[in-house]
Amino acid sequence: MEFYRYVLMKNPLTLVGCCIVFLMAAVAILAPVLATHDPVAINMTEKLKAPGAGHFFGTDEMGRDIFSRIIYGSRYSLGVGISIVLVAALVGTALGSTVGYIGGRTDQIAMGIMDVILSFPSLVLAMALAAALGPSLFNAMLAVSLVKIPVYVRLVRGQVLSLKEKQYVKAARSFGSSTGWVICKHILPNCTSPVLIQVTLGIGEAILIAASLSFIGLGAQPPAPEWGAMINTARTYILDQWWYATFPGLSIFITVMGFNLLGDGVRDILDPRSKNKPGAIKMTALLSVKNLTVDLPTGRKTARVLHGVSFDIKPGEVLGLVGESGSGKSVTALSILQLLPGGKGGISGGSICFKEQNLIDKTPQEMRKIRGKDISMIFQEPMTSLNPAFTIGKQIMDVILAHNNISKREAKEHALDMLGRVQIPDPARTFASYPHQLSGGMRQRVMIAGALSCGPGLLIADEPTTALDVTIQAQVLRLIKEATMQAGASVLLITHDLGVVAQICARVAVMYAGEIVEIGDVNETLLSPRHPYTRALLETVPELTPGYRKKLASIPGSVPDVFARISGCRFNDRCSVKKDICLAQKPQLVCVNGNHKVACWT
Ligand SMILES: Nc1ncnc2c1ncn2[C@@H]1O[C@H](COP(=O)(O)OP(=O)(O)OP(=O)(O)O)[C@@H](O)[C@H]1O
What is the pLDDT of residue 461? Predict the structure, then answer.
């Protein structure tokens, strides 16, 4: 019902998509009735005839009727597109749910392999696989299915990671249910919407890739009336017999467009949050900082403390921001919330887009509404962030009441619920306590409860465990990860500790002297660091290097003064592998592998 109302009233393009897909299906089913000729029957006396009464779309070089071949070709296209997507979705869902549920090393290895596959363009990888398997339609379909499996693995695994933390899943596990049962009964039914959206959007792409493989001779083989293969043979006649390539080309175009329009409609209905956000299904950035420059008054002069910082955080992602003291991590965080001295006055260039809105364009009133509600922050020392004069309960309730139109009683219930969620043993007692009556670890839990109380999309945690006991640090880090995952929030975790990054972050950005010098997935960046500064930082963390026996290293020199005039790379005076160009020209952040980027000439 919802679908019909949506299609008819709100999105006529979805209706167009529906009609095309329906028509395609009808043509494929009724092909023997609709076709005017045998699609493979050769008749050399009729060869290369222009469209006319006998042959609506003309004939090819063997005298075969192109109209009938197009009609039968719809069977190939539909069959190929649907089969590829079904195989990829089934295998991907099974794999993604299993590795996501098992977690640990299995998950890491599986996702590492998926990331490698995803780092290649689909078409190129499909071509390589199809060529290796040998030219045939079945092999082409197999190749495209294999290439598309990682998309579903990633999608389902992401869902499973958050679903497996839900209370009902934990309860099912505590009842002794088997892994397979928990996955099939409690987890997979909740993953159907994103998978369905991906399936509908994926059919068009699968048809296109399979047709491209046939076009280069790796897919359907002559005389099969497959559209891509038809265009392949039509190439020789493209100048004189326009109809030969035009009709199969148009058929591919209309079919792919139909599936894409339908897919967009399905996505808008099943996931309204992604509506009007092109590419949201591909996890576009929740926060996108681009070329951010910040100038701050220091004494009588103004110093440039950020020199064009750029990074993205995807929904649900934990991004670590690391670097030595003075590298600009806190200034980056404070710029996002416009909490720098003078508000956004210090921001001299760039953009900070949160949910596709540039925060730099917001008024102070608008920013006040965003802080705590959409983006919240926790600091190193919770004692200084909590007011000693008020109880914990009052302080959390104040945040909740400032952003929600609810009664005090509801706010109290919510505050107690949040304290329970951050695993505070006796929420009611903590609610009535003053900050000084709690331990450092408990205070930080309270801060996390308060920060997440209004369901922010992004939590900025600035050195959240530095002031805590070593024994408590791991607990609080785990809590940040679990609580934000449950709430579906992303995290920008600022730390100087790469060990912390390795524990909880998915990606890491390394900052030096007001710039990001390296950014990428945690595993890749920490195991194969490309920037000499990242390598030097890693050498200061012996436990990240198995078998490391050396004395704890330190990086010679220090972060340059904000007034220092540096030409070339800002790390050049401390770099042990610098070259001439490093002194003359500033390196840009460029891709070295997938989403691993580095700014270095060496
Ligand atoms: N309010 C301010 N006014 C002027 N300069 C500032 C201000 N805050 C920070 N800076 C300067 O900006 C640079 C980056 O500081 P920032 O605090 O962001 O570093 P950081 O990487 O967070 O260090 P730490 O790990 O010690 O917090 C430093 O040189 C610092 O002196």
Answer: 93
Lookup result for tokens 């089969």: 83
pTM over 0.80? The answer is: no
d(CA 34, CA 9): 33
DSSP annotation string for 71-132? HHHHHHHHHHHHHHHHHHHHHHHHHHHHHHHH-HHHHHHHHHHHHHHHTS-HHHHHHHHHHH
Which atom of ligand 1 is closest in space to residue 514's alpha carbon?
A: 14
Residue 89: its pLDDT value, please? 94
2-282: CATH topology: MetI-like fold (1.10.3720)
* Residue whose tokens read 């190129």: 124
Nearest CA to ligand 1 atom 1: 341
- Cα 251 to ligand 1 centroid, rounded to whole Å: 60
Mutate to test the pocket of ligand 1, among 329, 331, 377 (most ligand atoms within 8 A of CB): 331
Ligand 1: centre distance to CA 360 (Å): 20
**501: nearest Cα among 549, 464, 468, 556:** 464
CB of 558 closer than 6 A to ligand 1?
no
341 lines ligand 1 (CB under 6 A): yes
What pLDDT shows up at residue 346? 85
Low-confidence ranges of the chain (pLDDT < 50): 273-283, 545-549
List, in order, residues 6 or more apart from 532 with CB less than 8 Å away.
571, 575, 576, 577, 600, 602
Name the CATH superfamily for 287-598. P-loop containing nucleotide triphosphate hydrolases (3.40.50.300)
Query: Residue ranges per domain, the chain?
Result: 2-282, 287-598
